Amino acid sequence: MRIEADLDRCVGAGQCVLTAPTLFDQNDEDGRVVVLVTEVDDSAIAAAREAVHVCPSGALSLVDDR
């Protein structure tokens, strides 16, 4: 699975970073999401799904390229 972030929708709430700090960070200048790992392996799928779920602006999505 692949993580996609819509930076135009991101409000910098940081819920993704709190939920999955190995997958996400925040830009120091504007607080918007920085995706650290675009291709999510099986061990991180649950954390990625939770981060997508808790994002208040709906800026994150998971894409299944299979």
Describe the secondary-structure layout.
Blueprint: E1 2-5, H1 15-19, E2 24-26, E3 33-35, H2 45-54, E4 60-63
Antiparallel strand pairs: 1-4, 2-3
The CATH topology: Alpha-Beta Plaits
Alpha-carbon Rg, integer: 11 Å
Query: Could you state the order of secondary-structure elements as H and E?
Result: EHEEHE
Please work out how many helical segments DSSP would assign.
2
What share of residues is helical? Answer: 10-25%
Main sheet makeup = 2 strands, antiparallel
Total domain modules: 1
Keywords: 3Fe-4S, Electron transport, Iron, Iron-sulfur, Metal-binding, Transport
Domain 4Fe-4S ferredoxin-type: 1-29
Cofactor: [3Fe-4S] cluster
Function: Ferredoxins are iron-sulfur proteins that transfer electrons in a wide variety of metabolic reactions.
Describe the protein in words.
The chain has helices spanning about 15-20, 45-55; strands at about 1-5, 25, 35, 60-65. A two-stranded antiparallel sheet has the order 1-4. It has 2 helices and 4 strands. The mean pLDDT is about 95. The radius of gyration is 11 Å and the shape is globular. The protein has a single domain, classed as Alpha-Beta Plaits (2-Layer Sandwich). The chain has about 70 residues and is α+β, with helices and mostly antiparallel strands. The termini are close together.
